[in-house]
């Protein structure tokens, strides 16, 4: 009988958990993130304005246009792609935020390709300004 009353109590306590998503804090600013290439962890930086995203990684600078879908989702498209793969737009989605200091995101190709499996990557960006 105790289990019968405990289950609804647990559902009430944990069912109301809501992930913090204050995405407007992260629309613009300077950010850093860690990424791994060939087992080596590296740090990249980027600056985002309302319309541009400028990436700095491995002594390279890359600029993309930013088109916001809503407060937590946007599309990145490279301004000067060097390969066909770089011509593909990227869909970015902020999954959760931690105050005004960092956010967890996921990204994937903006257009589904029926002959390729959808690859979704996740990461964490930290605001540095």
From TrEMBL:
Organism: Winogradskyella luteola
Protein's UniProt name: DNA topoisomerase IV
């Amino acid at each position: 009988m105790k289990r019968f009353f405990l289950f609804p109590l647990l559902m009430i306590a944990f069912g109301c958990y809501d992930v913090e998503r204050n995405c407007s804090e992260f629309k613009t600013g300077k950010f850093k993130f860690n990424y791994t290439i060939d087992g080596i962890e590296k740090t990249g930086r980027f600056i985002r304005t309302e319309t541009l995203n400028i990436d700095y990684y491995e002594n390279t600078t890359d600029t993309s246009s930013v088109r916001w879908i809503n407060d937590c989702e946007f599309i990145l498209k490279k301004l000067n792609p060097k390969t066909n793969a770089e011509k593909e737009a990227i869909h970015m989605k902020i999954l959760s935020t931690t105050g005004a200091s960092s956010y967890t995101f996921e990204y994937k190709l903006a257009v589904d390709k029926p002959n390729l499996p959808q690859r979704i990557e996740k990461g964490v960006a930290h605001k540095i300004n």
